[in-house]
Structures are given as C-alpha cells and as structure tokens.
Amino acid sequence: MDHGPISRSRERRSFLRPKPLQSPVLPSPPLLSRDLVVDLHTDSCPLTTKNFLKLCKIKYYNGCLFHKVEKDFLAQTGDPTGTGTGGNSIYKFLYGEQARFFEHEIRPELKHSKKGTVSMVSAGENLNASQFFFTLRDDIDYLDEKHTVFGMVEEKESFETLEKINEAFVDDKGRPLKNIRIKHTYVLDDPFDDPPQLTELIPDSSPDGRPNDEIVEERLEDDWVPLDEQMKPEELEELIHSKEAHTNAVVLESIGDIPDAEIKPPDNVLFVCKLNPVTEDEDLFTIFSRFGTVTSAEIIRDYKTGDSLCYAFIEFEKKEDSERAYFKMDNTLIDDRRIHVDFSQSVSKLWGQYRHGKKNQKDKGGCFKCGATDHYAKDCVGEKDGKKYVLKDENTQRGGHNNHKYDMVFDEDRLDREQKKRRVHEESTRKDRDHRDSDRGHHRSQNNEEEGDNKSRYDEKERDHRSRYDGEERGHKSRYHEEERGHKSRDRGEDENRWRKEIESREYKSRERNEGGDRRRDERDYRKGSGERERYKHHEGHRHNRDYDKRAHREREERDHRR
C-alpha cells in the first residue's frame, strides 16, 4: 500500500505527483501506489503547518505506520515508533528538548465537519508534536476545540485512498493486520523560510522502508502479494511439492535415516534389480564397462549366508556413462533374467563423507579386481593381496568401523574370518568360564572349613553364656520366692489381727442388741397396757424389718469373709 501525504498551501495551486513504485508484473493489491493530496491552512495555523511542512522536508514521516484505524471515525499516523506514544515536533530538532511540543491553534471556523479533515493528535492541552489523523466520515463535531485542524484532503483519488484505509482489517487495538505506511512525502509549496539548522537535517536521499525507531511487532507489509497471485498454478504446485519434500528430508535427518537434509543421491550410480542369484559381481562389471569406466559393481548379499539378494549398485566414473547405461540396459536379459535399471536413490554411500568431514571431497574410487585405490579396474595388471571386492570408506552410521558404503556386501573370506573369530571368542569364553568355576569351587571349600571353625567357637561361647544366664536366673528366682514368703507371712498376721477385732466388735454388738431387745419388750408391754399398741404398730413393723435386714447383711459379710 503506497500513499504519501503531499502538502501544499492554499495560496498556490500547483501540483506535483509522487513517483509511483515499480509495479509488479501481476496485478497489485488495491492500496498499492495510491496518493493522498493535502491542502494546508497556512494562514490560520502557521505554527502547526510549519511544523508539518518541515517534518515532511526532513523525511520524518517516511515509513510511518497508520498505527490506529477506527472504521468510520479516524486514521492516525505520524509516530516513527509505531506505538502511538512517540513523535517529536520540528522545533525539538531546531531548539532542543524543551521545544518538543507546541501549543494549540484552534480556530472556530475550522471544524471536523467533513470527511478528510487533517488534524493534530495531542497528548494533552498544548502538547502537539508530530502525530496527526484523517477523519473518515463527516460531522465529528465533538472533536472541535480539542484538536488543531490544519488541513483538508482534496481530489477524488485521495478520498478513494481514505476509503481503502477505512476498509482495512484491524486487531482489537485498532492496528491494521496488514501494514499501511507512508512511503514518501513531497512538498509542493512551502511559504515558510527554512531555518539555517534545517539543511543539516535533510537527508541526501529519501529513506525507504521501516523506520529505525519502529519497535512494534512485524506484520505483513503493504506490498506483500500472496503466492497464488504471483505464480501460475503449475509453478505453485511444484513449489508446494518441493517444500513438502524438504520437510520430509528434515524429518529423515532427525531420525537418522539420512546424514543431511540437503543431501542428494549420487547421479553416477545405477540401481539394478531382478538379478539371477547366480550372477556375480564380475559379470555386472564386465557388462556395464562397455558404457564407460565402472568404479564399482556390488551385488548386495545376505550378511549371514552370503547369498545374493538379487539387486546391485553400479557406480560409474562419469554421469554421462551412467545415463547411457540406464537407457540401454533397462529391461535387458542377464543370465535368463530380465533386469530393471534405475538411478540409485540410496545415500548410504555418503554417510562416511558426512561423518568424517568429507562432505566436499570427491570419492577417488579404486580397482574393482584387486581392491587398490590408486588405479581403476581397466588399468589393473594383476590381482594383489587384498579383498575380493572394493571396500568403501568407514561408515559409523551402523555402529561399526569396517562397514561397506553399501551396507550388505560381504565376501567369503570375510565370512570365514568372522566365523573363525567367533569360534576363538567362544573358546576363550568357555576357558574363562571353566577357570572361574574351578576358582569358585576352591574358594567354596576354604569357606566351608572356615565356616565350621567359626561355628564350633560360636557354640562354645553360646553354651558358656547360657550356663551363666541359668545360674543368674535361678538366684533371682530363689530370692523372689523368699521375699514372697515373707510378704505372705506378714499378710497372714495382719489378717488374724483384723479377724480378731471383727469378732470382738460382733460380740459387743450382740450384747448391745440383747440389751436393746429387753428395753423394747418393756416398752411394748407398757404400750400394750396403756392402749397405745395400735398407734405404734406400723412403726414397730418398720423397725423390726430394718433390724432384720441389718442382721442378714452382717451374716452375709461374715460368710463371705470366711470363704
């Protein structure tokens, strides 16, 4: 989106169109390369319009975001930080920090009554700096006498630009989701003289792009165009496939299937399959050598049995030779089998180069017949002492140090050596086990003897300890019994004294009872004679019963005590 506020005085009606940006080949977004032409009220607001014109001259507004757009209300800009809290007036650059803000120039005749009105944003009373806004509809009267109106948008094209800004999608804070910037500013007419200090502030060339002071998060720029509008459907589909392939390669690298995501299979290696099990490496080497120099021909074999797995890799010295062999040998007969030839997709051969820092080195190859690396098979004069097949660089991918570049190539000599090594290892393991068993038996017998001696000494000590313990226990028991007998004798003496006292008390009470009975009989006789027996009959019955109960209770206590 390209638009630039272009200032001009109302006294002079000259026009100068801004230079449009280079248009891409494909259609541009709606807001790209659009202009805003502004007429300034230089007579009514000289302080404000001078500030605006001089800031435009020093290219202060270049790259500033429209950091706030409220639909059908206003569009605010002029802050290089993009936050809405920054900005300086031209007077700060000329006279210092104390002149950062300047006063209002509110005029009663200048109102926010029309769409496209240009007014200053203030941080408070008489706190104007660099920020300003455009009104996006008519009759916003409640902004009058609060903000300084210093200009008006003119021309139909400018109103169309404001309408596009008004339709921008914004977030919850009012910032457009797709950046809207002031690309350049051009002054058509300036009635104010330039201060001497202003010359030093004017840059040699008009700045472009994001301001250095901008601190807000990055978003899509206004000149961003979707890929589906830039490319043809076929090109876009190919691009998508290439990105998916790269993503899959990164996954394979992370799980250890390939050494590097950017690696490519070698273009001079052919993959041959559907071979006859009787076909040998020398046969393939001879057959494919007629297309060019073959550096290696390897049939992949089972690592246990050494049997052919019926596929092989043929490596040529030149890429052109491999291409000729591919076109000529595909679907041909070898040992009564119709083979299939394709370019290899295996990168196993390159593991050693990536593991050992040889990524940029070329494989020197070697002789297929004798295994030497200083010449090729066509220059070989005879077999040397060495391995039957060409061994590749070390490959630590599979955890070993003698693996082939093509993982499953084994020869009979190697199998014999491995079997011999396995037998030697088993024999040494068995001897070590027998030696450990004999040592274990000797140590066990010594341990048994020592254990018997220790047990006899322990039994003797245990017997001595038990005898001492039994003697002490018998002494404790005898002393306890003597003390118990003494306690019992004392208890019996105390019981006899207590019984004696109880008997004496009983005898005394019986005597008192006999005497009381005599008195009661005399009283009954007296009352009987006097006619008062009936009066005290009930009382006598009560007392008789009470005496009987006490007597029965004493008798029960005596019986219980005797028991």
Give an account of the 3D structure.
With 563 residues, the protein is α+β, with helices and mostly antiparallel strands. The chain has helices spanning 46-57, 90-95, 156-166, 198-201, 227-230, 233-254, 281-288, 319-329, 351-355, 412-530, 537-562; strands spanning 2-3, 5-9, 36-40, 68-70, 74-77, 117-122, 128-135, 149-154, 181-182, 269-273, 294-301, 308-316, 333-334, 337-338, 340-343. 40% of the residues lie in helices and 13% in strands. The chain has a seven-stranded mixed sheet with strand order 2-3-8-6-7-5-4. Strands 11-12-10-15 form a four-stranded antiparallel sheet, covered by helices on one side.
Shape assignment: flat
Terminal residue distance: 124 Å
What structural class do helix, strand and pairing data support? alpha+beta
Number of DSSP E strands? 15
Short characterization:
The chain has 563 residues and is α+β, with helices and mostly antiparallel strands.
Key descriptive features of the protein:
563 residues; alpha+beta; seven-stranded mixed beta sheet; 11 helices; 15 strands; flat; disordered N terminus; EC 5.2.1.8; Cyclophilin-type_PPIase_dom; rotamase; isomerase
Task: Explain the layout of strands and helices.
Elements: E1 2-3, E2 5-9, E3 36-40, H1 46-57, E4 68-70, E5 74-77, H2 90-95, E6 117-122, E7 128-135, E8 149-154, H3 156-166, E9 181-182, H4 198-201, H5 227-230, H6 233-254, E10 269-273, H7 281-288, E11 294-301, E12 308-316, H8 319-329, E13 333-334, E14 337-338, E15 340-343, H9 351-355, H10 412-530, H11 537-562
Parallel strand pairs: 1-9, 2-3
Antiparallel strand pairs: 3-8, 4-5, 5-7, 6-7, 6-8, 10-12, 10-15, 11-12, 13-14
Family: Belongs to the cyclophilin-type PPIase family. PPIL4 subfamily.
Subcellular location: Nucleus
Keywords: Isomerase, Metal-binding, Nucleus, RNA-binding, Rotamase, Zinc, Zinc-finger
